[in-house]
Amino acid sequence: MQRAKTLGELKKSLYKSVSVKDEMRSNLLRKLDVGEPLFPGIIGFDDSVIPQIANAILSRHNFILLGLRGQAKSRILRSLVSLLDDSVPYIAGCEINDDPLKPLCRACHERLAEMGDDTPVEYLHAEDRYVEKLATPDVTIADIIGDLDPIKAARGGHALSSELTIHYGLLPRANRGIFAINELPDLAGKIQVGLFNIMQEGDVQIKGYPVRLPLDVALVFTANPEDYTARGKIITPLKDRIGSEIRTHYPETLEHAMAITAQEAWITRNGGTKLVIPQFLKEVVESIAFVARQEKRVDKRSGVSQRVPITCLENVVSSAEFRAVVNHEEKTVPRPSDIYAAVPSLTGKVELEYEGEMRGADSVVRDIIRQATARVFKKYFDGVPLHSLVQWFELGGTLKYPPNASAQELHGQFKKIHGLLEQTQHLGIKAKDDPTLLASGAEFILEGLAALKRISRNDELGYHVEKQHVESPPEEPGPAGHRRRSLN
Question: Which residues does residue 203 pair with via DSSP β-bridges, in sequence order?
Answer without folding.
Answer: 212
